[in-house]
């Protein structure tokens, strides 16, 4: 995560207002060794870009009119899964995410709670077998069919291992690969596991995502093309 994103993340946790001395302490704790002069340059740059405004000497506020970068910080459970996968399969491509990350952008809060592990197809079964030996205390499904989703995905927490589409947009946070928001938005259109997000809820999801965050439309449509969902995504974008 960039220094600017860390400043925004820290400010968000402070209800949007932060002091320069506090963010300097935060960056030092994160071992970035940011000096006072370097921080001053970064803050001036962020003000020039209208990302933050100065409300008094040494105190700043996030510019609420500016869209934020989407930042998905893995929780402890995701990091646990990541450590098991990375230890046994250090060279495979995968990402881990939970559908609850989209809840703040939805109108209705779904009862479904899933952890999705998207893995390159040749390694799916191996990852599934490896995680079966870990006491996770919840159902673990391997690439379920639509009927499987209807039968087994409910109110209880579920882990699903699915095929990762080649060149899917992924980022790495805290050494854990997670999908970008663009990937999740397209998956919401395309995936049988995410049927609870589809229908009219999709338009709410896209509208709120585009309102609150900076979306890279080129990345979104490129991935939608790989999923054969470009027309559907364009239809939603036109509607919102």
Structure write-up:
The protein is α/β, with parallel strands linked by helices. The protein has helices spanning 3-13, 20-29, 36-48, 76-88, 124-132, 146-152, 181-190, 200-212, 217-226, 230-239, and strands at residues 17-19, 52-56, 59-62, 94-98, 113-119, 140-142, 157-163, 170-173, 176-179. Helix 9 runs antiparallel to helix 10 (230-239). The longest helix is centred in the N-terminal third of the chain and has 13 residues, at 36-48. The chain is globular.
Main pleated-sheet profile: 4 strands, mixed
Series of H and E elements: HEHHEEHEEHEHEEEHHHH
Q: Low-confidence parts lasting 5 or more residues at pLDDT below 50?
A: none
Rg from alpha-carbon coordinates: 20 Å
Structural class determined from secondary elements: alpha/beta
The helix tally amounts to 10
Mean pLDDT, to the nearest integer, reads 88
Note the overall shape.
Answer: globular
Sheet-strand content, in percent, reads 15-25%
Query: In total, how many beta strands?
Result: 9
Separation, N- and C-terminal Cα atoms: 30 Å
Strand order of the main beta sheet, please? Answer: 4-5-7-6
Range of helix content: 40-55%
Give me the secondary-structure topology.
Elements: H1 3-13, E1 17-19, H2 20-29, H3 36-48, E2 52-56, E3 59-62, H4 76-88, E4 94-98, E5 113-119, H5 124-132, E6 140-142, H6 146-152, E7 157-163, E8 170-173, E9 176-179, H7 181-190, H8 200-212, H9 217-226, H10 230-239
Parallel strand pairs: 5-7, 6-7
Antiparallel strand pairs: 1-3, 2-3, 4-5, 8-9
């Amino acid at each position: 995560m960039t220094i600017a994103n860390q400043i925004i993340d820290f400010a968000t946790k402070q209800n949007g207002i932060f002091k320069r001395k506090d963010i300097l302490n935060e960056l030092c704790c994160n071992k970035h060794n940011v000096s006072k002069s370097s921080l001053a340059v970064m803050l001036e740059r962020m003000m020039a870009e209208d990302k933050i405004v100065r409300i008094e000497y040494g105190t700043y506020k996030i510019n609420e009119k500016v869209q934020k970068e989407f930042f998905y910080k893995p929780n402890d459970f995701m990091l646990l899964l990541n450590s098991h996968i990375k230890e046994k399969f250090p060279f495979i491509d995968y990402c881990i995410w939970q559908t609850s990350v989209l809840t703040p952008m939805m109108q209705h809060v779904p009862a479904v709670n899933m952890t999705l592990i998207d893995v390159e197809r040749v390694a799916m079964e191996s990852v599934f077998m490896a995680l079966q030996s870990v006491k996770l205390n919840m159902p673990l499904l391997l690439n379920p069919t639509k009927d499987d989703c209807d039968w087994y995905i409910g109110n209880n927490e579920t882990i699903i291992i699915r095929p990762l589409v080649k060149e899917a947009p992924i980022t790495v946070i805290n050494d854990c690969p997670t999908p970008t928001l663009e990937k999740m938005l397209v998956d919401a259109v395309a995936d049988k596991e995410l049927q609870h997000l589809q229908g009219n809820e999709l338009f709410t999801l896209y509208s709120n995502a585009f309102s609150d965050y900076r979306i890279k439309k080129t990345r979104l449509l490129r991935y939608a093309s790989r999923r054969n969902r470009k027309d559907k995504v364009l239809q939603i974008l036109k509607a919102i």
